[in-house]
Amino acid sequence: GENVEQHPSTLSVQEGDSAVIKCTYSDSASNYFPWYKQELGKGPQLIIDIRSNVGEKKDQRIAVTLNKTAKHFSLHITETQPEDSAVYFCAASREYSSASKIIFGSGTRLSIRP
Amino acid sequence: DTGVSQDPRHKITKRGQNVTFRCDPISEHNRLYWYRQTLGQGPEFLTYFQNEAQLEKSRLLSDRFSAERPKGSFSTLEIQRTEQGDSAMYLCASSLAGGAKNIQYFGAGTRLSVL
Predict the structure, then answer these.
(1) Which of A1, A13, A21, A33 reaches 20 to 30 Å from A83, CA-CA?
(2) Distant-in-sequence, close-in-space partners of A83: CB < 8 Å, separation ≥ 6
(3) Dihedral, CA atoms, B97, A107, A1, B47, nearest 10 degrees?
(4) Is A107 close to B40, i.e. CB distance below 8 A?
(5) How many CB pairs under 8 A join A and B?
(6) What is the pLDDT of residues B3-18, one digit of tens each?
(7) Residues in chain B within 8 Å Cβ distance of A7
(8) pLDDT tens across B13-55, in order?
(9) What are the CA-CA distances from residue B92 to residues A77, B49, B86, B111 (Å)?
């Protein structure tokens, strides 16, 4: 069935360093890959997304890369700050399809050390 | 606040009781989704509506679960004869289908504890 695997499950980095989270997906029909950030007591919030017709997208300190052939995608956060501490979820979906549910990874708990 | 609203935020119930949760989506959104999130896991899809039609249900949605969206606006999720395994965060999301993007926006969730 459809599956998204995410690594690592926990990540601790020094403030100012970079953080990288990697995911793989199984459904070859997936064409939309959002990344969500979830803080304690809140619902997931979309931080960046990428569609299968591009290989990379950047928004300030956050970048995502997609390798559709290998079914890999990654989140890169540069110059990390304390407010980046949260749980991050990668996800995959079939955009423009009636099956528009999102399949989430299991999450990465990111901690930024001061 | 014009985001997705869920009520209640927390619900504690005894095993065997029925519970109902409500979700109010972003007003112009025609799609509404329910997800369940257990501790340390990502959200898992339960069901979704386009307007008032329920278009897909996950195998996770046992026959004790029922969801409705009677007028294509707010939705309710009812769990009958709750079990301890139903304890989780129940998340609602909404999106606007048919446009260039189908971004799902999530509410803060209803945390259910079954004693």
Answers:
(1) A33
(2) none
(3) -40
(4) yes
(5) 58
(6) 999 999 999 999 999 9
(7) none
(8) 999 999 999 999 999 899 999 999 999 899 999 999 999 999 8
(9) 27, 11, 16, 12
